[in-house]
Structures
1.
Amino acid sequence: MTNPQHTPPASWGLQEGDPISAELTALRRLGGGSAYDAYLAFDERCYAPVVVKLVRPDQVEDESTLRGLRREAAMLEAVRHPSVVRLLAQEPEGERPHLVLEHLDGPRLSSLIRRHGSLQSYQYLPLAIDVAAAIHYFAHEALVHLDIKPSNIIMGAPAKLIDLSVMRTTTDAAALSYPIGTDAYLAPEQADPPHTGEPGVASDVWGLGSTLFHAVAGYRPFPDGDPESADLVERFPQVALRAAELPDDVPDEVAKLIIAMLEKRPANRPRPAEVADTLQPVLEALPRGRLAGFKVR
């Protein structure tokens, strides 16, 4: 039995002014999960605020967690796109393994939905076009994000994707044999590969479709699954169920596109560029006053 006195704490418990490293000073905790914490920090090298993705103290000896941090760093180094957060520095080893990311001045899409419910068209159209452009770029580079969801999108002009911790090459994604992603937003083929199909670029299109549905409607397209269930459909209702009905006030072009993005068969979903090309005219048709702060492409 492990001696409790030698069990690492689950959190660093950093307060404003505490050092993270020689160059990084904590300002406040932004959030986190089971393996990582995110802190807003001041970087003496950049002389600016940054976001630090920090491995939790009880995970610093966990090879799976450290491998995920190294993978995310490698993917961020490989991906250079206006709608993807930038990696500024990395320290994948040592007492406090971490990544240093650019600080994005905007709310998460999930926070907006939680506070306000459904978004207006001048809010959700630009973000969908921006993310579709990023997915198109990933496909060009033979990469897939595999975890597109509202909490991984920072609203702004442009909107930006964060958290590339489960990103894979298209070859590695197609070879997956276990679920990967977030249950409520992952595509059917991600639920139980290879039995439900091979994850790929179309899986990111599904993730954007689920995210766009949530932003447009204020509720998710499928009911909550049971993460503890061994039954595939009980855990992942999207494998078998039809998506919920969208509100009547959603523009026809947008509603048809979202339903197409949520087609069960990956081959029946639109390509990322088709998503952007379909939504662009809808955005351009909005009254100009609604587009203050957003650039029409």
2.
Amino acid sequence: MQRGRGALVVIDVQNGFITDSSRAVVPSIVDLVRRWSGPTVFTRYHNYPGSPYERLVGWTAMQGPPETDLVDELTPHARYAPVVDKRTYSLFTDEGRALVAARGWTELAFCGIATDSCVLKSAVDAFELGITPWVVTDACASDYSPDAHAAGLLCLRVMIGAGQLVTTARLLG
């Protein structure tokens, strides 16, 4: 990723998405955020009564604090960075699209939770919008299971290209 052309996007590292499957990635994400020298954006997912997630999947979590709060370790970093609140899988809400366009970013590096849903959807949306996506594989996890994380990475390899999946060391190197 070329410096000055993009941002690090930290997807949904919120209390409600921290499980046995995702907990171990939080220190890696915090380390990446600390070491990243460019702009950073955070997203926060908010579910709502009557949402498709509730109606079609039967999932009613993430409707308010403390579930929707960013994890404590990231709160100081998000204080001075844009935070995009969303009700969909993707960063690319109206607010997210406007932010990316206003900053002129042509590349985005994604990390966070969950590889198999919100990270995947945001990276694919970036790809389809002509923005070069990078997915930081060792700074992503699924809140569902390690197998779901692996499935998300497999889909990303097919959908945005294997070369777009990088490690923290490669991204920062």
3.
Amino acid sequence: MKKTIIGIVVVSLWCIGTAAFAETADSKISGEAEFKEHCAICHPDGGNIINPKKTLHKKDREANNIKKEADIVMLMRKPGPGMTPFEDSTVSDKEARAIAAYIIKTFK
């Protein structure tokens, strides 16, 4: 009986630990890595190779009414001419938010 109870406790703790690890690993999305993978080709160093007036630097973002992370995510999903849209099947909402946070933090 004791062995059964100990076995159940061990298995339960293992399951909880595995779930917590999976959640922690998934929550560690790097905005910088995602930016490099999806954005840097057209936005090297926060610039814009298609439209130099629409860089990722704060001055240009704000001039184009892009002030918050949500604005960046919206623009990623429904961009203007010259930019490829990023569907949530390509860039998840979590990844898009990480990219947006990275842009705001990095390109001041």
